[in-house]
UniProtKB/TrEMBL annotation:
Pfam families: PP2C. SUPFAM superfamilies: PP2C-like (SSF81606). This is Phophatase 2C family protein. PANTHER family: GM14286P (PTHR13832:SF792), PROTEIN PHOSPHATASE 2C (PTHR13832). Residues 89-515 form the PPM-type phosphatase domain.
Length: 532
């Protein structure tokens, strides 16, 4: 069941700012419904043989009926429209599909309005968790707040703390209440905003990693030690266990921030989720084309830039081991992430916290890779990119797709822009993959850096049919990533149960944001929500 609730309190924003919309959605457990026995397919599965060695065997599985597949694809979809007083209608959809059980992805969004209603800050995020969902869930509830606080400090030129409500509201109010010539507002520029977002990410991760250490320090100060027990046992400390789980699991994070006052778009990426924009360009024949603008770089150990960075941050004798087989220390694929304390805490700290929190409840911490020497090997610092918006110009950037890597494992940025462009144009039914490019022409403005180079897409997307059957744009993309109009392929991939499906597809979360200008007559805030 979807969870939706605001996470900036009314009291916090009771003065100059108020939340227009906020939601956190984390998909629930997966349920499977099977058809009759003659509706089956065979799946290669790796199992352990009697001699202990692994071997591949074929397992016969039942196929889900299309009715069940449609229901599962659409059950976590949301769609919202916000008609803003400054004449722009904002639309966004989000949908998630689990492969892990429970899903490790999460997402959130929030719109913060100036007191006079003439400007907004719009935040959209997707999170791709790994080694559990603890980190991604925490990020979905708190990262937007952390960035908003950092931006408020920038605007107010203050050192407000998170507990200072006055500083938070006054800082954000300064964005619009002071004249452009004011020195405070002058700091609100692209370099400073980008730096503020970076700092918020890094500081959030520092607090995340320090939390279980702080609880241990408090226990020591309270005298929970003895000669017989020099190391406290906090394995039953609920807060301690919660903070440990959030620190040792991990998550990639992708954030889009729309600043409507300055007409700026910022994309902050930590990890291998990806943001892609569609830019509309009219042509002489009057038909137009969609330019593909990849707004983020995949930060993985397959990205040459990241490999160079990692090697430069560690002694030369580790050059051959920092990245092995396209993974950090041969283990972790994303080179930037929140949490993942096994790649960040020094070994003595890992051993101590393992003894304090994990051993007593029978869940000891996995040891880091054998080549672990000079941590940290992973950082939460994002790469922030910027694009100028022209909200009233139809010949400009028109939509942004944010998605976890489960989508990009299967679809290219060009295919995603084509699918969104076709959906916005009103295409319906099934269309051959060879025909769609002629109906929705695209060109590459910026291909970005593909951090998945060397990995093949998990399925061919060059043959077969695309499907235009979903109202929700995000669900539309997920369906087409998994088979589209080829129902047999779609039924097979969707019928693989949890425990097996992760070898064939990842969790997928997709958010699509687009906007329309020329809504000046609608001066009231109107929010239309639907589950599609």
């Amino acid at each position: 069941m979807a969870l939706t609730k605001p996470f900036i309190s009314t009291g916090m924003l009771r003065r100059a700012w108020k939340p227009i919309a906020a939601s956190i959605v984390i998909a629930g457990p997966v349920y499977y419904f099977y058809t009759s026995r003659n509706q089956t397919f065979e799946l290669p599965v790796r199992v352990k043989a009697s001699d202990g060695k692994k071997e591949i065997v074929k397992k016969t599985l039942p196929l889900l009926p299309m009715k069940s597949i449609d229901s599962r694809l659409r059950e976590n979809g949301i769609a919202e429209t916000h008609d803003r007083p400054y004449g722009v209608a904002w639309h966004h959809t989000t949908s998630s599909l689990a492969s892990n059980d429970p899903i490790e992805d999460a997402h959130s969004h929030q719109i913060i309005q100036s007191d006079d209603g003439k400007s907004d800050l719009l935040f959209f995020t997707v999170f791709d968790g790994h080694s559990g969902r603890n980190t991604s869930q925490l990020l979905s509830r708190t990262l937007i707040n952390a960035v908003a606080l950092q931006l408020s400090q920038l605007a107010a030129n203050t050192t407000a703390s998170l507990s200072s409500t006055k500083s938070f509201t006054d800082g954000l109010w300064a964005l619009w209440s002071k004249s452009p010539s004011n020195s405070t507002l002058a700091s609100w520029d692209v370099p400073n905003i980008s730096s503020a977002i970076e700092n918020a990410f890094v500081e959030f991760d520092r607090v995340l990693l320090d939390a279980p250490i702080s609880i241990l320090k408090q226990a020591i100060q309270e005298g929970k030690l003895s000669a017989q027990n020099p190391v406290p046992d906090l394995s039953n400390n609920a807060n301690g266990i919660q903070t440990m789980q959030a620190a040792i699991s991990g998550s990639c994070a992708l954030m889009a921030l729309f600043d409507t006052a300055q007409q700026d778009l910022y994309i902050a990426c930590t990890g291998d989720s990806r943001a892609v924009a569609g830019v509309w360009k009219p042509t002489e024949d009057g038909k137009g084309t969609w330019e593909v603008d990849v707004l983020s770089e995949d930060q993985t150990a397959r990205n040459p830039k990241e490999v160079e960075r990692l090697r430069s941050e560690h002694p030369s004798d580790e050059a051959d081991n920092v990245v092995m087989n396209g993974r950090v220390l041969g283990g972790l694929e994303p080179s930037r992430a929140f949490g993942d304390a096994r790649y960040k805490w020094p070994m003595p700290m890992q051993e101590l916290l393992n003894q304090v929190y994990m051993v007593g409840n029978g869940t000891p911490l996995r040891k880091p890779p054998k080549t672990f020497k000079t941590p940290p090997y992973v950082t939460a610092r994002p790469v922030v990119t910027h694009r100028k918006l022209a909200l009233g110009d139809p010949s400009s950037l028109r939509f942004v797709v944010l998605a976890t890597d489960g989508l990009w494992d299967v679809l290219t940025p060009e295919e995603v822009v084509t699918l969104v462009g076709g959906h916005l144009a009103g295409l319906k039914g099934t269309i051959s993959k060879s025909t769609l490019p002629s109906l929705v022409p695209t060109s590459i403005a910026n291909a970005g850096v593909d951090g998945k180079a060397g990995k093949q897409l998990t399925r061919s997307t060059k043959q077969g049919l695309w499907a235009f059957v979903d109202d929700n744009l995000s669900t539309h993309l997920i369906r087409n990533a998994l088979g589209g109009g080829d129902e047999n392929e779609l039924r097979k991939i969707m019928s693989i149960p949890a425990g097996m499906s992760r070898s064939y597809r990842d969790d997928i979360t997709v958010t699509v944001v687009w906007w329309e200008a020329g809504k000046e007559a609608q001066v009231d805030s109107i929010t239309a929500k639907s589950k599609l």
